Amino acid sequence: MSERISRRTMFGLGAAGLAAAAGAGALATRSTPQQPTTAHAPSPSDPFPFYGPHQAGIVTPAQDRLHFVAFDVTTTKKAELVSLLQEWTAAAARLTQGKEAGSFGAAGGDPEAAPDDTGEALGLPASGLTLTIGFGPTLFDDRFGLAAQRPAALADLPKFPGERLIPEISGGDICVQACAHDPQVAVHAIRNLARIGFGRVSVRWSQLGFGRTSSTSRAQATPRNLMGFKDGTANMKLEDTELLRDQLWAAEQDGSAWMAGGSYLVTRKIRMNIETWDRASLREQEDIFGRDKGEGAPLGKKQEFDAVDFAARRPDGQPYIAEKSHVRLAHPSAHGNAHLLRRGYNYVDGSDGLGRLDAGLFFIAYQRDVRKQFVPIQMGLAKNDLLNEYIQHVSSGLFACPPGVQDAGDYWGRSLFG
């Protein structure tokens, strides 16, 4: 492995956070863009389309790396916020196709001015980069006259039993989710958006992630979380057209016409007590999840995708799947058939002062109505899940992700601000 690749790979394991400096942005390629011939990127190097009825990065087959950022809006002028969203959209359209953020790029233009692009992704392909934006509840306060347009589904999350949220890494006015197969490409995208936003937004918090913990397409194998178990076996997939229509995409009849074609995002940073978990017996670990660790099959079954049978009993008469197991409590049958589209990531943010890994799951879930989906599911888990002994929710985010950008004359959030 080359020295350069080794440095880039380390981005996926580093701590969150990226500062922004001054700048602007507008046109020039970092590599020759490859035009996809289908709705899905044919290889990890190629681009996904940016324009469409829904934002990319939701049902897009989950990429390997994440850089997620939440911004606070610092300007008090609505016109400046709209201008920023327009500039961001133009830059995002370029970046996702393997181009530089601005027209003069990292090495062109006025040598006495800051470059249009920071340059660390020069020579790298698009790497399946997607950029997805969302608006937090705090954006709908009295600063920009948006209070009447706050969707009912963007209701503040309740306090869940046992959570210990850190305010500094929770919330935010605007979020941007960057997913790519190369961590340097994802970091480059967020860095340049933050640079463009200087003076109008500031970074509130950010998170790097690696090793996706969900599949969003049936073409993908189910990945594993840092506890060693397959994660997201029952996740909604892009092929589930009717389920996505019913449970993922907001509709005009939901009460907020500007969100039609969008979706609601919940993030949770879930720290795992890794060292304690690693000393638990295999039987205990499997009973907690309700699946076997090797194949990922529901206990009492043989294959990962075998139907879960909650009535099945062991020879001693006890249920194979415990009443407080994660699988049973999270199952759609326990919550009125509520589903989530998950696309979370593992994270390792170094270690704490006691020498324990600061590691776990950065949970990401999209849905049509948080009140009917995430909230009842998480409330049931928070109250009863056997897994709670080994995890701690430390941050939370809630965002309304608008519909997709239709063409070059459109911009992120136009349905809200236009």
Automatic annotation (TrEMBL):
Residues in Dyp-type peroxidase N-terminal domain copies: 55-210
Cofactors that this protein relies on: heme b
Keyword Transmembrane helix in record: no
Oxidoreductase among keywords: yes
Compositional bias of kind Polar residues: 29-40
Top enzyme category: oxidoreductase
Pfam families given in the database record: Dyp_perox_C, Dyp_perox_N
Note on cofactor: Binds 1 heme b (iron(II)-protoporphyrin IX) group non-covalently per subunit.
Molecular function terms from GO: peroxidase activity
InterPro entries assigned: Dimeric_a/b-barrel (IPR011008), Dyp_perox_C (IPR048328), Dyp_perox_N (IPR048327), Dyp_peroxidase (IPR006314), EfeB/EfeN (IPR006313), TAT_signal (IPR006311)
Protein family (similarity comment): Belongs to the DyP-type peroxidase family.
Keywords: Heme, Iron, Lyase, Metal-binding, Oxidoreductase, Peroxidase, Signal
Parts of the chain that traverse the membrane: none
Signal sequence bounds: 1-21
Annotated catalysed reactions: heme b + 2 H(+) = protoporphyrin IX + Fe(2+)
Known EC number: 1.11.1.-
Start and end residues of each stretch annotated as Disordered: 27-54
Residue span, Dyp-type peroxidase C-terminal domain: 222-405
Function description: Involved in the recovery of exogenous heme iron. Extracts iron from heme while preserving the protoporphyrin ring intact.
Compartmental location: Cell envelope
Cross-referenced NCBIfam families: Dyp_perox_fam, tat_substr_1
Name under which the protein is recorded: Deferrochelatase
